[in-house]
Amino acid sequence: MITARAAATFDPVGRSVATARAFVRDTLQGWGYSEVVDDAVVLTSELVTNAVIHAGTAADVLCLRSADSVRVEVGDRYPERGVPIQATGHTFASLDSENGRGLMLCSALASRWGVEYTPTHKQVWFQLDLPQHPVGTRSAGPALPTAMLPVADERVRVAVAQIDAAGAISVWNADAEHVFGYTADQVIGKPLADFAAWPHTPGIGTGIAEALRLSRWEGSYGIRGTDGRVIPVYASHLRVRDSHGEPSTVCLLVRDDERAVLQTPHRVPVTDSATDKHTTDPFEVFIGSPAPDDLDGLLQRTVERARDMLDGDAAFLLLATDDETELEVRATTGLPSARQRFARVPVEAGTSRYGSARMPAVHEDLTSVPGAVPLLNSTGMRSVVTVPLKVEGRLTGSLGVAAESAGRYTNEEALRLQFAADRIALAVESARLGELERLRRGSLSFLVEASDLLAGTLDRDQTLALMAQMTVPTLATWCAVYTIADQASDPYLSYVLHEDEERIDGLKALLSKIAPPDPVPAPGARVWTAPAAAAQQAALRTSRHELGLGSGPPVSSGIDTTLATAAAVGGETVVLPLVARNRVIGMLTLGKPSDDHFRQEILELAEDLSRRAALALDNARLYSERVAISQSLQRSLLPPEQPTIPGVEVEVIYRAAGEGNEVGGDFYDLFPISDGVYGFAIGDVCGTGPEAAAVTGLARHALRLLAREGFGGPAVLERLNAAILDEGARSRFLTLLYGELRPQENGGALLKVVCAGHPLPLRLRQDGTVEPAADPQPLLGVMDDLELFEQTVTLDPGDVLLCVTDGVTERREGTRMLGDEGLTEVLTGCTGLTAGAVAARVLRAVERFAAEPASDDMAILVMRVPEPQHG
């Protein structure tokens, strides 16, 4: 007669073999059938390998429990694949062959085995008989070899003390005398608190006196021995009542590093004559716990022992979030993979007291109250008992045991499970707080590093990349960033990243086909189901095409990619708004693969990161806009085009100092004034920034306007001087070289120049001599009344006129400066060079003069009259 069953399906991938082995091992150990676990795991491994590797199909594994045996069935979906057995008996083709090895093992290890076929499935099964045990006994787990047992320095001592209602010691056994050194006469009648080394157990607020009044409690504290040394102990307190009704507390104490010995040795379960049910002392199940920092081990062991204690088919333990509104799945046994860690369910699942995780509840048949326990929906479980875990009145979790049959549990089982939950609650909460503290320390380090990285760039694309790279794979398996240009724009998919680079393109294609999440400004993460639904539909369409059931052309290429993408996106997906300056500027989307969920601490960390990332992204946007505006304005200050002057070569090189600057305080211009007459200017505005740029624009436009009105050089500069002074406090003084150029019919050029406080232009003759081409005059923007004059310069064929700003002559290397002498020396060697070559050689000399980059703007204007060409 079958008394229990457990089933699971495994995908046709290599890692499924190990997962199947773990499933069978956990199932049989949970049933107490550890004696046959090893044989069952070996046989399952071989049969599942045949299914998922050789047959290439999913494997269905079914475990069946009966009173004297266990049966495991492994089915695949490729019945055409033959069984490698000769027609006569069970003779195998070859002992050395890989084919048929699983069936050879079945024949050797199993009590019975066989193969069954259906039109769509092939099933191989084996049965293992259980060894005979005395009636009413079962193994609680695998036996350890003697060499692996812990070593004790001496006989383990368990001190027993009984404390009366007033807190005084009334019983003190021989082990207590040995451990602490006090005889019974020395301690009886004295309060236990007199011997306690510290009044509160570490990490909680419960003192010794309060613990003695609790119905049950366990924890660590210290006892002072007769030699004055403090002996850390692990204690278990149980409140009892004697035959006269007087309350007292029995204390079991061991040295703190021997806490595991408080587990009661295995005993035959007690038979309840009224119900003929076996009961197990909860002390046997729950006293003693893993190391304080091993939260996962503690939780997993708790659910396994809770299931065994109530002889259930499944068990689960959920921990409450900080606000006690949701419970997070942290450990399960006997439930399908979709109920794995970090899935969340509400604390209040209904309106009655039985719908709240804050109260113990027994559900006799879940089919009559669907949704009463959301975690068990679609699992086949019919009856369930759930109890809260509470510490100092606060809900910290929920423990449940479920069965596939209805009416399995009564209030008696609920009380026993609650008793066990009370025993473990404090240890669970202590371990949870320790884990939370470690996570928060790691979160702080993560956020500090993230803030540094985000603050280190003002580039929008780089900020988007950093946001994704910081979340994958630390917080999520994949990430997508949506951005919103303005309130009238729809969210745009800007960046996609997956921990597996080969899946990025498929993920991007999938997300591009679905509507983006709504830009809701509400803080916190919200679940977004669209990607998982789209992935499921894509996988379904691909599978139908693969089977020839879909319409349209075959899609054999890309099937694996589509299915892999669907698996990668099939888990939980959450969206966090990117809010900066009270505006939603985008969304950060994080995803997990199939059946995975985000834990609450990760979501809180992601929310903190999203706030920092949003501000960094908005700063990058503002900076980009500002740079674009600045560059547009700067370009408007540069001459639109350089005119072609007949008979004269002209070359201009301009370098603005500062990152992102196209225009600085230096400027130049070259423009036509009238037929055959051209104006040129090169100047330097004092200072930098917008104020200097404003004077640059004023000077360039004023020069063009006044020159074309027919004013000569001195008049042009005098009026520009007045305009600069009219700016008042915003004015800047200006050095300016201005001139008019007239090409001559004989091949030369006539120049009229005014040098107002600017570095003097240099004239290079064909014989290599260099001389200033003008005299210095007062600069502009300082005094009202200027008396300027213009000078005439004639350039003969082959002559060069070099005009520069002080960024060239004042180029420095330590205390050295290029100066007029250095510039003259450079120009002397430029005889016979074109205007472009002269300008390039001057720039190269300036750059090579010092190793550091230039800190001042530079403008170089070269005009040359070429020699006549001889035919």
TrEMBL record:
This is PAS domain-containing protein. Transmembrane segments: none annotated. One of its GO terms (molecular function) is phosphatase activity. InterPro entries: Bact_Sigma-Reg, GAF, GAF-like_dom_sf, HATPase_C_sf, HATPase_dom, PAS, PAS-like_dom_sf, PAS_fold. Gene3D superfamilies: 3.30.450.40, Histidine kinase-like ATPase, C-terminal domain, PAS domain, PPM-type phosphatase domain. Residues 154-190 form the PAS domain. One of its GO terms (biological process) is regulation of DNA-templated transcription. Keywords: Hydrolase.
